[in-house]
């Protein structure tokens, strides 16, 4: 079932999330809801706190991005042999970052209609459990690594705008205020802190 996505201003988006525990009821349903919610919003990633669940769980779809790029785009944004992923990450921890950084524009379903360039490591290694609760340690690069880092940040209470320079934050301050006050329309259900507008 599709869920409303929490907008900038909700305290839960700034909280450090807890591990997904065996006691959680119906994690499969939560994961299914997240995929449905993300796809309906035309997103490429979604973290559990964005739908009000402060747990270390997020999903990533870089495969759709890869499929929509031409050969030049694929060579720019993906490493050779990488065709993207559709993956669930549970209790993830990034255990290694490459020294090589690259900058690309990022957006967020919780911060609608705002995009800013963010610098991140090109490659990461991450320790996590997949949707079948199988332990994984995998290395990702390019756009796939970027989306993972963005969603991983969500589970630590960090938003992509937190990576921006102070001057950039000042420049976009009025736009952020509009989002917090619910003055931005979206094609997907979104829940604002100020007036609980859906």
UniProtKB/TrEMBL annotation:
Binding site residues for Fe cation: 108, 150, 154
Matches recorded under InterPro entries: Peptide_deformylase (IPR023635), Peptide_deformylase_sf (IPR036821)
UniProt-annotated catalytic positions: 151
Enzyme Commission number(s) of this protein: 3.5.1.88
Record CDD domains: Pep_deformylase
Matches recorded under PANTHER family: PEPTIDE DEFORMYLASE
Protein name, as recorded: Peptide deformylase
Provenance organism: Sunxiuqinia elliptica
Gene: def
